Amino acid sequence: MMDKEKTAEAYKRFLEVIETLRSENGCPWDKEQTPLSMRGDLIEETFEAVDAITSKNALHAKEELGDVLLNDTMISYMYEQKGEWTIAESINELSDKLIRRHPHVFKESDGASQVQDSADTSDKVLSQWDRIKQNVEGRKAESVLDSVPENFPPLLKSYKYAKKAIKKGFDWPDNAGCRAKVEEEWQEVIEAEQAVKACGNGKPLEVSSTPELDKAQMHLEEELGDLFFSIAAYCVKAGINPENAVARANKKFYERFTFVEKNMEKNNWPMENTEESRNHMSELWKTAKRNEQ
C-alpha cells in the first residue's frame, strides 16, 4: 500500500524547495526560466526516464522520474506565480478526469452514461474512454486523428495516426497483411532510388541540380516516408512503440560503433571506405555483437 502520509510530507517539502528556488533570493537560473524555456528540459528528462525504465534499472528510474517531476512541477508553479492556475487545481482536475473516465471503477463517475457493457478488457476500456471524451467532455473532433498533437515527433505521430486508424477498423485482417504493406513500400523505395540514379550523376536539391533529379529525389523522400509510416503501423500491430524500439537501436549502435572506433585506433587501422578497412570494421562489429551475449 502507498504510504500517503509520507508521500504528502515529501511532496510538501519538494514544493517548498521549488518555491524557494523561484523566490526573490532564490537561484538566478531558476528565476529566469519560463514554461517555454523549459520545454526542452522536460522532453530530455522524459527520454532519460524512459531509457532508465527500458534498462530495468530501478534506482536510475527513481532518479530520472524525479527529474521529470521536477520539470513538471517547476513549470506548473510558474503558471501559478502568474496567477493563471494553481498546482492544486491541476492535480484536482486530473483526479476528476481519472474518475470520470473510469466509471467501471468509480461508481460516482460522471462517465457512467457511456458504459455499454462490462469493461473487462483493455480494448473495451479504451473504447469507453473515447466515448467519454467525445460525449461527456465534448472533445469530439472532425477526425479521430485530430486528437494527435500537431508538434509530435514525426515517427511518434505516424504511430499515433496508425493506432487510431486501426482502432476505428481501418486495418488489415492479420499481421501478414501489414507485413506485405511494408514489403510493398520497400519495393517502391527501390524503384524510386533507381529513378534517381537514372537521372545521372549530380547532387539533388542543390543549385547545380537538374529539375528531373530534384523531382526524382523528392519522390524517393516521399516513398521513404511511406515506408516509415508502414513500419509504424506494423509496430501498432506488433504492440511495439517505435520510439522505444528506435531508442534501443540507437543505444546499441552507439555501443557497437564506439567499440569499433576504439579498437580501430588501438590497432592503428584507419577508418575509411576501403576493402581492408571495411573488413577490419566488420570483424570488430561482430566481436561487439558477441560481447553483448
Explain the overall architecture.
The protein is mostly helical and 293 residues long. It contains eleven helices and no strands. It has helices at 4-21, 28-32, 39-54, 58-81, 87-100, 122-136, 154-167, 175-198, 211-238, 242-266, 275-292. It is globular, with a radius of gyration of 26 Å.
Number of helices: 11
Helical residue percent? 55-70%
In the predicted model, the low-confidence regions spanning at least 5 consecutive residues are none
**Quick one: overall form?**
globular
Order of helices and strands: HHHHHHHHHHH
Class inferred from helices and paired strands: mainly alpha
State which percent range the strand residues make up: under 5%
Main sheet properties? none
**Nearest-integer average pLDDT:** 92
Q: Please tally the β strands and state the result.
A: 0
Gyration radius, rounded? 26 Å
Distance between the termini: 38 Å
What descriptive keywords fit this protein?
single chain; 293 residues; mainly alpha; 11 helices; 69% helix; globular
List the helices and strands and how they pair.
Blueprint: H1 4-21, H2 28-32, H3 39-54, H4 58-81, H5 87-100, H6 122-136, H7 154-167, H8 175-198, H9 211-238, H10 242-266, H11 275-292
Task: Give me a quick take on this structure.
Helix content is 69%, strand content 0%.
